[in-house]
Design brief:
2 copies of one chain form a homodimer. By secondary structure, chain A is an alpha/beta fold. Helix content of chain A is 46%, strand content 15%. In chain A, the strands form 2 sheets. A 6-stranded mixed sheet of chain A has the order 1-2-10-7-8-9, sandwiched between helices. Chains A and B meet through helix 12 of A and helix 12 of B.
Chain lengths: 319, 319
């Protein structure tokens, strides 16, 4: 794939930014002297924890929902992501006044179900297995005609997530490196594309939990390695790369830095304490990656995308 | 006191803003749809939790330290506030490269001492009584010639704190009400003065813990009522009003709204959850006051000063 073969061009991303502009928040870009000292570079943080529904996921979900034809939209949308994508899709559907169906395993934490329902989604329970999930989603689609919106392996989603990096480049010029976390790769591919198209000299580095290093291994092997174990505090990053996201990452990402669970918690706590913002563990993965890679990033202008801020305040990973 | 008799004029506050401009952070003004729904008004939040040293206190301390003559400054500054003012004064002194002495009771939490020391202050321990504190401070002054910087009853401090409201009015126009917490009254008097001078039609309301409602009772009685009990989670608000702050509050504050401990914790948790920012209980007092007073504030444009974000993450008031 050459530059001209990227699945999206800069105009696509700009058009997406315009499409979601009335709904998505142009999030703050913050910095902190103390954090810079800790990281050894000049970091700016794109605060997607301030995004509607508390995570960057709203950008992609909103773009997907607003891109539907009226005939499609009226039949609703469906997903079986019970995390931030589920909440984001529900909110985007609510804004278009169409139904959202979220398929959730019967053993999902009540707090997650309550969050998705608080945005107005219809929750359909299923047995906690991948096949039950797919079957249940298929049943919802058959009954309603709703459109399945994949959480990351969808160009509308990737274009939506790319708008975060686009705004970051617009608001913080001359970044030398942009860092974000990688799970299924929607944010990672969007960030890599936006960065490549907006400023080809700027490198993209991804942070990934060591415990779920499938993206790291995929890059080394040159093919998608599926997630096997998924025991990490960064619960937004437990998914395998997709057919659309992997080649973009392969082409436009400089490197993946893996971080331990302890490093994730340390970075999360450091950001809470010094920046006074609430970030979720997945966001902290990107910060921890910058810290871990600090010898090579020393003194550089680094943009970090803080992916979200949805945490359970009753179960914090310290104390 | 009439408008012409205010102890500071708008030019004083503007000059203060310029003096501290190279050091203090012009903090973000954030808003949240969800929080607006909860409060029933159009609220904007001045994020002094993002201020240097994590609280608005840096503004006043910086103004005081930068206002000293070189001959005064070289002998250093001293305070016996072990909270945010102590840290702020230490940081301001560090920036002017002069010594800061902080007198702390021997039973102060180690985390507070560590915070003050992390900004480079010399900590002098004393017995945990008011008289020991005063004596120890007097001893430091006798030995060093350092200048005592009162945490709130000092015009340089009040002018410094006033710059937060000045920026708020500049960045969020046409506010109908500004709300901040009241302890000793430095922030409250500064906010009231800046608001009166910048936009005389805008009212100022203060939030105060019911458990330490000395300011509320002082306004009713027409004279300073000292703090008696001081059992509140809002540990920044346990001080009595001062001779300088009380008359300003008396003249320019519309009303004081007192809130329960449960209301403070509820507001704190709501802001953390919905706005993804870390605020300390004293900040939450202002938010809780808006919520409590929501019938009279319905639909209004309300500016809320979030005073700080210094909390002990190992001891949160929930869960």
């Amino acid at each position: 794939m050459t530059a001209s073969q990227t699945p999206l061009c800069l105009e696509d991303i700009r058009a997406t930014a315009e499409r979601i502009g009335p709904f998505a928040r142009r999030t703050s870009v913050l910095s902190s002297r103390r954090v810079n000292e800790w990281l050894g570079c000049k970091a700016v943080f794109k605060c997607e924890n301030f995004q509607r529904t508390g995570a960057f996921k709203f950008r992609g979900a909103c773009n997907a929902v607003m891109s539907l034809s009226d005939a499609e939209a009226v039949r609703g949308v469906v997903t079986h992501s019970s995390g931030n994508h589920g909440a984001a899709l529900a909110e985007a559907a609510r804004l278009r006044r169409v139904p959202a169906h979220v398929v959730m395993p019967s053993n999902a934490p009540p707090v997650k179900r309550a969050a998705v329902e608080s945005y107005g989604a219809n929750v359909t329970e299923c047995a906690p297995t991948p096949s039950a999930r797919e079957e249940t989603a298929a049943r919802v689609i058959a009954a309603t005609g709703a459109t399945l919106i994949h959480p990351y392996d969808d160009l509308r989603i990737i274009a939506g997530q790319a708008t975060a990096a686009l705004e970051l480049h617009q608001d913080a010029s001359d970044l030398e490196v942009v860092v974000c976390p990688v799970g299924g790769g929607g944010l990672a591919a969007g960030t890599a594309l936006a960065t490549h198209l907006f400023d080809p000299n700027c490198k993209v580095i991804l942070g990934e939990p060591q415990a779920v290093d499938d993206a790291y291994r995929s890059l080394r092997l040159g093919q998608i390695v599926p997630v096997e174990s998924a025991v990490t505090i960064a619960d937004g990053l437990k998914t395998s790369l997709g057919e659309l996201t992997f080649p973009v990452i392969q082409q436009h990402v400089e490197r993946i830095v893996t971080v331990s669970e302890a490093e994730i918690v340390e970075a999360m706590r450091f950001v809470w304490t010094r920046m006074k913002i609430v970030i979720e563990p997945s966001s902290a993965v990107a910060v921890a990656a910058v810290r871990k890679h600090r010898d090579r990033l020393a003194g550089k202008r680094v943009g970090v995308i803080l992916s979200g801020g949805n945490v359970d305040l009753d179960h914090l990973p310290w104390g």
